[in-house]
Amino acid sequence: MRKVLFSFLIFYSLSAQAQQSKFLLGINAAGVWNSYLLTPDSGPYLLGGKINWSAGIQSKYLLSDRFKLDVQVNFATKNFASGLDMNYLRTVDYEAYLNNKEIHYNVKQSYIEIPISVNYFFPAVKPVNFFCDVGLTNSFALSASYSDMNTYSLVHFGSYGIAEKYKDYLISLKAGAGALFPFGKSFYGSVECYSTIYLKKVSDHFHNPFQLALGFSVLKKLSSKKISTN
After folding, report:
1. Mean pLDDT confidence for 174-196
2. Which of 50, 62, 63, 153 has the fewest CB atoms lying closer than 10 Å?
3. How far is CA 187 from the centre of its chain?
4. Contact 181, 218 (CB under 8 A)
5. How confident is the model at residue 27 (pLDDT cuts 50, 70, 90)?
6. Pick from 126, 85, 147: which is nearest to 229 by CA?
7. Is the dihedral of CA 8, 10, 16, 18 positive or negative?
8. Would you say the pTM of this structure is higher than 0.90?
9. pLDDT digit string (tens) for 111-134?
10. Is the link from the previous residue into 182 a cis peptide, with omega within 30 of 0?
């Protein structure tokens, strides 16, 4: 909780500079695709990818003609499909194996994420400014639960805690590219394709997922200074 509060303080300290210059503030949303590759240390779990999403507040602060600091505070989901390998099930519940019981369900997770990155803007192709970015994302767990369990799964596995859930704190490397373009007076739109790579294992039971995201932002210039990347 202290880490979450500290991250919020960082974000709002940047927002307090809005009356100076070089500042954009707005909202963002992204669709996030994650996929699992089954590996020898996946253990008994059969894992599947899901489309997740994130949404929140975003700011961009002009550091120089080419560089902007991007700070966000987002609510994010990290859901995935899970289940038990029938070969493993044979060793722990032979009756279920013989009756071919389906042990498939979803794991639902929510996090507060604080992505902090640096944007590098290429020479402008008016009215669109293209950029690439790299940074770190801190993720703090809010909740985890099972869903879409059949009756057998709920009785036998639903009361033992969420064994496959991610760790309470995650840190990942974010890298991507996108475009910033004006629309209307003092408003900007942004679209970005990016990937996040976890720097530590998200769980003790399996390897990290690969993630690919497409995000959109609507930002408002809160100062009179022109933010052109020329």
Report:
1. 93
2. 63
3. 25
4. no
5. very high
6. 126
7. negative
8. no
9. 999 999 999 999 877 788 999 999
10. no
